Each structure stands twice: as structure tokens, then as C-alpha cells.
Fold this sequence. Notes:
By secondary structure, this protein is mainly α.
Amino acid sequence: MSFCAGGYLRRQKAGTEKRTATTGMCVLIPGMFMVGLASSSVVLYCGLALYSFGAGTVVSCLTTMVSEYGSSSERGRVMGIFRSLGSLSRAIGPALCCSIYWSAGPLVCYSIGGILFAVPILLLRRV
């Protein structure tokens, strides 16, 4: 993720955050499926590479996009809400995914995760 942020994102022009975040989410989807289908370490590491690239681009670009909303006096509140929602998802997500993983298996768990990435892609198109 640090290579992505330092190497790829730094070279992106200002104003391309939406496109870059959408691209990152589109890369996350096959990464999730590859991790779920991994029958060898090569497939697993390829999936993890796609996942880390996607996660590195999405988080940085969405943070930049959210920071542009609201007036300068509201910016701290907007960023605080965004960060709080991220923390909440990092708390709830693993518990939920763990229960799916152990009850239905890795393929179902990672496939659901990959399919659910279509929701933020569609929501990002509206922005």
C-alpha cells in the first residue's frame, strides 16, 4: 500500500480522485475473488497484490474527496464523521466477515465482499 501511495498516487493529477478511487475499487473486486479462490500461494499473493493496490488508492482518494466537502468551518466535523465511520466499519466488518467465513467458507465470504464493492462504485458515480 505504501508503494501505491508513494509511487502511483503521488503522480496523479489533482481532480482525478474520483476516477482513481473508482479504478481502485474495480481492482479490489478481482482481488477479493482471487483470494477466495486461491488454491495456491501464487494466486493468493496475486489477489493480495490487487487488494493492496486497490485499498491504497481508494482510502487516499476518498479522504481527499471528503476533505473538499463543506465550508472551511465544517471541514473538521465532516472529516471526523468520515473517520468515525471508517473506524466503525473496521470494528464491525471483521466480526461479520469472520462469521460468514467460518459458516460458509472463504469463497462465499470473499465473493460477497467483492460483489458488495459494486455499491460504493455506483454511489461514487452520483458524486
